[in-house]
């Protein structure tokens, strides 16, 4: 790869969408764990 080659990264709007999806996944995971704990399904 030459120094003059363009960077191989997605456009800014795609990176923003990926970051938003990652945050939503973390929130969904935490909500699932809290929901399971509140419902008393898991013996924590």
TrEMBL record:
Any Pfam family the entry gives: MmpB
InterPro entries: MmpB-like
Keyword terms, alphabetized: Membrane, Transmembrane, Transmembrane helix
Ranges annotated as spanning the membrane: 21-42
Protein's name according to its UniProt entry: Uncharacterized protein
Organism: Streptomyces racemochromogenes
